[in-house]
Specification:
single chain, mainly alpha
Length: about 140
Amino acid sequence: MWLHDTGRLPELSYDEHLACLDSLRRAFKKSNIPYIRHFRNTYDDPLPPYWMIVGCLSYGALKQTFYRGAPESIKRKLATSLHVFNSNSNPDVCGDVKILSNWLETIRQARNMTAHHDRFWNESSTRSAPKLPKHRRGSHVTDW
């Protein structure tokens, strides 16, 4: 199974990779999503296919494991496809990984605040505010 290949998440250490697998197994075992229950009842595999496992992960686990563990090239492609650019004119490295990571963390914090009925107005305890790219030229500017 692809999850057991540590090369698929090269930014994770060996111990982090083992913790990731353990977390995925726990999420799989406790999930009550119908297709996960069907898989558990029908097959003997310790983990379901990727598309199923993602469905039972929390946003924080998805960000912490799969985004953080992904190769830089994948992160850059994701940032580029979301038009999160930096000032570098090289199209192969124009996606700004740091800003995208900041945005993902801001989304996680906002989601947690909303889920726990916290307030946003005059909130000063959030750890990171969303950052904007410095590069604000090109066809993507109108999309912002």
